[in-house]
Amino acid sequence: MTDPSTTPPGSDRRALRIGLTGPIGxxxxxxxxxxxxxxxxxxxxxxxxxxxxxxxxxxxxxVVAAFGDGVVxxxxxxxxxxxxxxxxxxxxxLARLEAIVHPAVxxxxxxxxxxxxxxxxxxxxxxxxxxxxxxxxxxxxxVWLVACGPDEQRRRLLGRGMAGEDAExxxxxxxxxxxxxxxxxxxLVDTDxxxxxxxxxxxxxLEAALEARSGRET
Length: 218
Fold this sequence. Notes:
Layout: E1 16-21, H1 28-37, E2 40-44, H2 45-52, H3 58-67, H4 80-87, H5 91-119, E3 123-127, E4 142-147, H6 150-159, H7 164-174, H8 177-181, E5 187-190, H9 195-217
Parallel strand pairs: 1-3, 1-4, 2-3, 4-5
């Protein structure tokens, strides 16, 4: 069976793979939803991470061993807020957590890529804030950096019900993430502005990506 991590980019044997990444609150999930309307299968790395951290899974056991029983809730599942609090302002602890989670998430996503190829799905989207750091950008044909201005980012986070102080902390914790990710990006998707205008912008970017792939295959 073909390993989806080694199938050449642009190969007509598989789907066009688009990696979506970018700062929190800039609209990655919204962009993914619009691509799904165009027939894409969306692989949400956060959802995969939740799956691999279910009780009884090796990554769950490794996280508890690394961070202690204080990150386990009364129901026996991972207490995600408690774990987030442990790593939020501690780069060393965050790196320790990512060293457990990323190696568990990657094979699960590769398996979903394989299933999509076997099903003949035309486009696969991997939505992941750690797309580049987790090594998933290397299995994508394109990496789209989804970004917006800081005022819009803040407004969207507050619109989710996030407290103002929490929103500011999360924005600060990422620093200038968009600038750091820019060298790895194939395309920049600017999500500032009215939703319909942004949607049309996204669909135009998709058309450009499909045309670019068609050109590589001729």
